[in-house]
């Protein structure tokens, strides 16, 4: 399905888009292309077309729950902040993982967490 409105960058300009992965990958290696070298092709869930993006932009962010799972498996995880936990799920906040400070001064995970996810 192709939508009339294509995805836009944060500055409002339209992103480069392609009908196939092959088209996107060919554009990425074209010497005339000066902006997308090193980018990878990915199918956009929003517009169902192919875009080119930096690989690091496509990595999902690490959440406190992910970090705890890594730690439980014996894999190094970002350090915990002492006595600094999510008000909703109780996960400890960790260095390098985004969190929110609410107007009441409490902290919570940046990504949805807590009992509403288990329903």
Detailed description of the structure:
The longest helix is centred in the first third of the chain and has 9 residues, at 21-29. This protein is 15% helix and 19% strand. A two-stranded antiparallel ribbon has the order 1-2. The chain has helices spanning 21-29, 64-72; strands at 40-43, 50-53, 80-85, 92-94, 99-101, 107-109. A hairpin with a 6-residue loop joins strand 1 and strand 2 (50-53). It has two domains: 1-58, no CATH class; 64-114, no CATH class. The chain is an alpha+beta fold and 119 residues long.
The number of distinct structural domains comes to 2
Mean pLDDT: 84
For the report, how would you describe the main beta sheet? 2 strands, antiparallel
End-to-end C-alpha gap: 32 Å
Residue stretches low in confidence (pLDDT < 50, at least 5 long) are none
Q: Helical region count?
A: 2
- Residues in helices, as a percent range: 10-25%
Radius of gyration: 19 Å
Biggest sheet, spatial arrangement of strands: 1-2
Strand count: 6
What share of the residues does DSSP label as strand, in percent? Answer: 15-25%
Task: Encode the helix/strand succession as letters.
Answer: HEEHEEEE
């Amino acid at each position: 399905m192709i939508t009339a409105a294509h995805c836009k960058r944060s500055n409002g300009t339209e992103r480069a888009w392609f009908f196939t992965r092959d088209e996107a990958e060919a554009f990425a290696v074209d010497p005339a292309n000066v902006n997308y070298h090193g980018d990878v092709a990915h199918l956009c869930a929003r517009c169902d077309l192919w875009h080119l993006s930096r690989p690091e932009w496509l990595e999902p962010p690490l959440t406190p729950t992910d970090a705890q799972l890594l730690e439980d498996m014996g894999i190094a995880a970002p350090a915990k902040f002492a006595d600094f936990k999510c008000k909703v799920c109780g996960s400890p906040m960790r260095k390098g993982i985004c969190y929110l400070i609410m107007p009441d001064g409490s902290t919570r995970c940046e990504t949805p967490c807590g009992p509403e996810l288990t329903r």
